[in-house]
Write a structure and sequence with these properties.
Layout lengths: L3 H10 L24 H9 L5 H19 L2 E4 L3 H14 L12 E5 L27 H8 L3 E6 L16 E2 L3 E2 L15 H9 L4 E6 L5 H6 L3 E4 L19 E6 L2 H11 L33 E3 L2 H5 L10 H13 L3 E3 L23 H20 L14 H10 L11 H9 L6 H14 L4 H7 L4 E5 H11 L3 E8 L7 E2 L6 E3 L4 E7 L5 H15 L15 H9 L13
Parallel strand pairs: 2-3, 2-6, 9-10, 9-11
Antiparallel strand pairs: 1-3, 4-5, 6-8, 7-8, 7-12, 11-15, 12-15, 13-14
Helix pairs in contact: 1-3, 3-4, 3-18, 8-17, 11-13, 11-14
Bound molecules: 2-acetamido-2-deoxy-beta-D-glucopyranose (6 copies).
Protein name: Amidase
Keywords: Signal
InterPro entries: Amidase_dom, AS_sf
């Protein structure tokens, strides 16, 4: 494996031709990479202020600066600079940026989204190190087609948090413990931990994640970025290491809502190899970017559920109630109608048992049994069986469990296999009739009796909730949610450590988000509302990480241009 040190060396010896024709000044023109948007990067590339090679070099150096502490990135694409130089050549030959908005732009993929290249796709496990896929995942193929540069793989909670009984968020055997950047040893939440941390401090333009039960929403919430969880079926899961076909969805972690729209636009669409995409209700996807206007909230009807918010579900990254009320005022001022105190009867039962208030089954136990049954079926049939090379010959969850418990690299028993143990003990996969009875019961209980029932009854465009409170309902139903930064925990916040690990769950400066939770395939409207809200609140830039890389484009371009006499590149630097 190419180490980070090797990368550092490679970057220093690379002598790249000077391509730029503009004259950057030492301070002007270069977008700060902590907050750079697609528009900023597009402008710089298209005006030849910097190149994709510069951008990739800058991001790699930024990763090198912080990764020993944050462990956000597990692998850097050994071909990233080469691909960047190809993009630069294409751009010089003439591209239409309107058709390929992501052309030459570096992104990170969660380490469960396969690419057919030098990179591994392991879900954080040594079990799949060295395994080979027959082709790119559909998502990776679409992103490449859109011109994006796949810069590397982001760390994650191992196996998308399916393995342990009490999950170590952000930890994987292969990637180590990812931590957040807003206070030391910050629990990054999971499972798209590395994706969120990387987006939050500018280790790439943006990152792709997956969400089964909060895996995009919770890291987005805790890391001061926009987490976009689309409807299950809007994005293909072909060659994405599965957890649950009913709940898995590929989405985005970005610094702005509009950037989420750009990234989603490149990823959505039907795929014969994932028949959940048959449910997509349009031939041509809506224009999510165009949906981002500053009147996106006007006339919208938004539900607020006090009983959902009363459920004590999240000991970490607590939402400040005052910030939430202020957000409601902003929504009203933007022309939205708030329908307060919408009853969501299922919310009280989450995540604990329903204490006799609902049907006679446990919601959480039933949801876990569904995703567990899916995992037993989906891991072999939708991934392991498709591998071209499978070095450890693992072809079932049972074999994976054995490997994990036997291999000294996998951290057992400190990191247990309790969830898998349970799935295997129940022994029911998603072909069993009893699986379907639980699916029917859960869908009814979370849907018509609760979330979708309330949306319809009150004619709502979305529910607005502190992000953690949106997770179980929407993910249990496969519905879309967008989480937007809302605030940070105050300076007098008590420090709470996790029981099992070394992470800090709660401390001053911990970001939190607000979620817009809508019906199936309502993404266009969610983008409109979230964008308008984000423009009015503008929270993200006010929350500063305690650690972030120092490398900026100016330095990289300067280094490239020193001694280059061929054109006007960087004359300002000489
Ligand atoms: C992928 O894993 C293999 C096997 O361990 C290793 O040789 C290779 O360097 C890894 N790829 C990257 C990009 O790290
Ligand atoms: C997808 O195809 C499988 C196998 O052909 C079938 O059992 C399943 O019902 C289909 N699912 C959807 C959502 O169409
Ligand atoms: C159905 O859900 C219940 C929890 O309410 C669980 O105990 C049971 O194992 C589930 N059945 C199946 C077949 O998954
Ligand atoms: C699912 O369970 C059925 C019945 O036990 C079994 O025949 C089938 O092989 C299982 N499928 C997988 C992928 O484990
Ligand atoms: C996997 O199977 C192949 C072919 O049967 C065998 O050569 C190889 O040794 C096996 N690898 C492991 C790790 O068991
Ligand atoms: C690319 C990279 O630096 N990967 C590292 C991620 O973290 C693990 C565990 O700490 C290292 O072994 C990898 O080298």
């Amino acid at each position: 494996m190419r180490t980070l040190l090797a990368w550092a060396t490679a970057l220093q010896v690379l002598s790249l031709p000077c391509l730029s024709h503009s004259r950057p000044t030492a301070d002007g023109g270069f977008p700060p990479l902590l907050d750079a948007t697609l528009a900023d990067l597009r402008l710089g590339l298209d005006s030849e202020l910097f190149t994709s090679v510069d951008l990739v070099s800058a991001y790699i150096e930024r990763i090198l600066e912080v990764n020993t502490v944050l462990k956000a990135v597990t692998e850097i694409n050994p071909d990233a600079l080469l691909i960047a130089s190809e993009r630069d050549a294409e751009r010089r030959a003439g591209i239409d940026p309107a058709k390929q908005p992501l052309h030459g732009i570096p992104i990170l993929l969660k380490n469960n989204i396969a690419t057919k290249d030098e990179m591994n796709n392991t879900a954080g496990s040594y079990a799949l190190l060295g395994a080979k896929v027959p082709e790119d995942s559909t998502i990776a193929a679409k992103l490449r087609k859109a011109g994006a540069i796949i810069l590397g793989k982001a760390n994650m909670s191992q196996w998308a948090a399916s393995r342990e009984l009490v999950n170590h968020e952000g930890w994987s055997a292969h990637g180590g413990q990812a931590v957040g950047a807003y206070f030391p040893l910050q629990n990054p939440r999971g499972s798209s931990s590395g994706s969120a941390v990387s987006a939050s401090i500018g280790l790439a333009w943006a990152a792709v994640g997956t969400d089964t039960g909060g895996s995009i929403l919770l890291p987005g919430h805790a890391n001061n970025v926009v987490g976009f969880r689309p409807t299950v079926g809007l994005t293909s899961r072909y060659l994405v290491i599965p957890f649950s076909e009913r709940q898995d969805t590929v989405g985005t972690l970005t610094r702005t809502v509009k950037d989420a729209a750009y990234l989603m636009q490149a990823m959505v669409g039907p795929d014969k190899r994932d028949n959940y995409t048959d449910a997509i209700p349009f031939d041509e996807p809506p224009d999510y970017v165009a949906a981002c206007t500053d009147s996106g909230l006007r006339g919208k009807r938004l539900g607020v559920s006090r009983n959902a918010m009363a459920a004590d579900i999240d000991p970490t990254a607590k939402t400040d109630p005052e910030a939430f009320e202020k957000a409601l005022d902003v929504l009203r001022a933007a022309g939205a109608e708030i329908i307060d105190d919408v009853d969501l009867p299922c919310a009280l039962t989450l995540p604990d048992d329903n204490q006799g208030q609902g049907p006679s089954f446990s919601v959480v136990a039933a949801v876990f049994s569904i995703v567990g049954a899916d995992f037993l079926s989906d891991l072999p049939t939708k991934y392991l069986n498709l591998l071209k090379e499978n070095p450890n010959n693992i072809s079932s969850v049972r074999e994976l469990r054995e490997f994990t418990r036997d291999s000294p690299l996998e951290g057992f028993p400190r990191f247990d296999t309790g969830s898998w143990d349970n799935y295997l003990k129940v022994g029911i996969n998603n072909t069993a009739p009893s699986y379907w009875s639980n699916v029917t019961a859960i869908t009814e209980f979370l849907g018509p009796m609760c979330l979708t029932g309330a949306l319809e009854k009150h004619n709502l465009d979305a529910m607005v909730l502190p992000t953690p409170h949106s997770v179980l309902m929407a993910s249990g139903l496969g519905l879309p949610v967008v989480s937007v930064p809302l605030g940070r925990s105050p300076d007098d916040t008590p420090i709470i450590k996790s029981d099992q690990g070394s992470l800090i769950l709660s401390a001053p400066n911990g970001p939190f988000g607000i979620a817009f939770s809508g019906p199936a395939f309502s993404e266009e409207k969610l983008f409109a509302m979230a964008y308008d809200f984000e423009q009015r609140m503008n929270v993200r830039p006010t929350i500063k990480p305690f650690i972030s890389p120092k490398t900026e484009l100016a330095q990289v371009v300067r280094k490239r241009c020193v001694g280059d006499s061929r054109d006007s590149c960087g004359k300002a630097f000489k």
